[in-house]
C-alpha cells in the first residue's frame, strides 16, 4: 500500500470518526434535553448577559451569528448555578427572568427552552440524517477507492 492509497483510506476514516462523534454528541444532548423536560425541575433564572458569536465570513462564505445568554439560578438544594446557552430567544435581554428546566444531578445542563418535544425530534432527526449521509458518503468513497486500487493492482507491473 502506497502513500497515496493510504491517504484515500485515512482521510475518509477521519470523516467517519468526525461524523460519528457529531452523531453521538447530537443524540446525547437531545436525550439530555428531553429527559430534563420530562423529569427535571424548574427554577426562575435571571439573564445576566446576552451576546452574539459569529463564525464564517472568510472569503466569500456567509457569516453565521448565534445568540447566547448567560443565566443564573438557584437549585432547590440552594446551589447557585450559572450556565451559557446558545440559540436562545431574541426577546430575552439582560435582567429578564425566565423559567429554566434542569436535572437535580446535573444542573449545569439546564435549558431555558420551553418544552417542545416535536420540534426537538424534528431537529434531532434532521441532524442525524445529515451525519448519516456524511458518514455514508465517506464510507462509499473509501469503498470506491478500494475497488479502484484493487483494479489497478491487478493490471500493474
Amino acid at each position: 500500500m502506497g502513500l497515496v492509497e493510504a491517504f484515500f483510506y485515512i482521510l475518509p476514516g477521519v470523516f467517519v470518526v468526525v461524523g460519528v462523534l457529531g452523531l453521538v454528541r447530537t443524540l446525547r444532548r437531545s436525550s439530555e434535553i428531553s429527559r430534563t423536560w420530562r423529569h427535571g425541575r424548574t427554577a426562575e433564572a435571571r439573564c445576566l448577559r446576552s451576546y452574539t458569536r459569529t463564525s464564517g465570513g472568510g472569503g466569500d462564505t456567509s457569516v453565521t451569528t448565534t445568540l447566547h445568554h448567560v443565566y443564573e439560578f438557584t437549585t432547590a438544594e440552594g446551589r447557585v448555578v450559572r450556565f451559557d446557552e446558545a440559540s436562545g430567544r431574541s426577546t430575552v435581554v439582560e435582567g429578564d427572568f425566565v423559567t429554566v428546566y434542569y436535572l437535580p444531578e446535573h444542573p449545569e445542563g439546564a435549558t431555558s427552552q420551553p418544552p417542545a418535544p416535536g420540534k426537538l425530534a424534528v431537529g434531532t432527526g434532521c441532524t442525524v440524517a445529515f451525519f448519516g449521509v456524511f458518514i455514508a458518503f465517506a464510507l462509499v468513497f473509501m469503498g470506491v477507492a478500494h475497488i479502484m486500487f484493487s483494479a489497478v493492482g491487478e493490471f500493474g507491473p
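The two ends are 14 Å apart (CA to CA). The longest strand covers residues 41-56.
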